[in-house]
From TrEMBL:
Location of region: Disordered: 1-27
Name listed for the protein in its UniProt record: Pentapeptide repeat-containing protein
Source species: Streptomyces caelestis
PANTHER family assigned: BTB_POZ DOMAIN-CONTAINING PROTEIN KCTD9, PENTAPEPTIDE REPEAT-CONTAINING PROTEIN
Chain intervals with Basic and acidic residues compositional bias: 18-27
Length: 289
């Protein structure tokens, strides 16, 4: 969650993607912890587990959150028992809530706004995640037939993110996601149609612990697939659609993820890989690989 550096940086551009229409589009969708009031470390609950070393209720600041809203153990989260914090991405929702919705006044200085901030943050995160995917789809040259609709969707969602705290908490983000999903699906189909041969469909499949080492999954649909602890070592995942796929503890050593669609840094951070894993160039190799 909270970085000690200015930005955590999340990018999902792959070689087949066009350059974004303007750099501002993506910059706004990358977490800028320096402009956020530590909202992920306050708003979200977690329970003592392999991912978190302690319990924390929603709305209560984590005991590791410093006065300057930075994480006090950022450089050693995994060693201190907080790997769960390394796989969270707000897609820029934190700075939007802090600087736009609440105009730069933090919850320490204005404790009366703390509850509202905590309520707005998870909704804003859903909106920003949607914006992130829509923006990526707009970068897919093959998805040009749906670009106009995607642009309209992006403008609408962006407008919603700039409303009042009350209007944001009153939104049905799931319904909005249901409206936008068909567009993302169409964009994915158009992009993957360029992949030669038969493309596998594992949409929503339960592939927990599956033995898929060396599998040909090029251009496959793995949308929402449960790939927890799956063996994907050496698999060909080029241009595969991985939106919402659960890659926790999946083995990606030697896998080829070049051009994977809708793959996020948080998904990579939750998986295992090595120096031989081929990544979309704008995604970073996690430090623990
Ligand atoms: S340990 Fe606490 S302060 Fe640090 S990133 Fe996790 S939730 Fe935030």
């Amino acid at each position: 969650m909270r970085g000690a550096r200015r930005t955590t940086g999340v990018r999902t551009v792959s070689p087949q993607h066009e350059a974004p229409r303007s750099s501002g589009d993506r910059t706004d969708l990358r977490a800028d912890c320096a402009a956020c009031f530590g909202l992920c470390c306050v708003a979200l609950p977690f329970a003592r587990s392999a991912d978190f070393a302690a319990d924390k209720a929603a709305g209560r600041p984590c005991s590791n959150l410093r006065q300057d809203f930075r994480c006090g153990i950022h450089e050693r989260l995994r060693d201190e028992g907080y790997p769960g914090c390394t796989v969270f991405d707000c897609f820029g929702a934190g700075q939007k809530v802090s600087q736009v919705t609440f105009g730069g006044t933090d919850w320490r200085r204005a404790p009366e706004s703390a509850r509202s901030m905590v309520e707005v943050f998870p909704v804003m995160r859903q909106l920003h995640e949607l914006l992130h995917y829509v923006t990526e789809a707009l970068g897919l040259a093959a998805a040009r037939p749906v670009h106009e609709e995607l642009r309209k969707a992006r403008a609408r969602i962006d407008g919603l993110t700039r409303g009042s705290a009350e209007s944001i908490t009153g939104l049905d983000a799931n319904a909005l996601r249901g409206e936008v999903n068909p567009l993302l699906l169409r964009a994915s189909e158009l992009a993957r149609a360029r992949v030669p041969g038969r493309r596998k469909n594992h949409r929503g499949a339960d592939l927990i612990g599956a033995k898929l080492s060396g599998a040909d999954l090029r251009g496959a649909s793995l949308r929402g697939a449960l790939l927890v602890a799956a063996d994907l070592g050496g698999a060909d995942l080029r241009e595969a659609d991985l939106i919402g796929a659960d890659l926790r503890d999946a083995d990606l050593r030697g896998a080829d993820l070049t051009g994977a669609l809708f793959l996020t840094q948080a998904q990579l951070n939750a998986a295992r890989g090595d120096a031989a894993t081929a990544l979309p160039p704008a995604l970073s190799r996690p430090a623990h690989w």
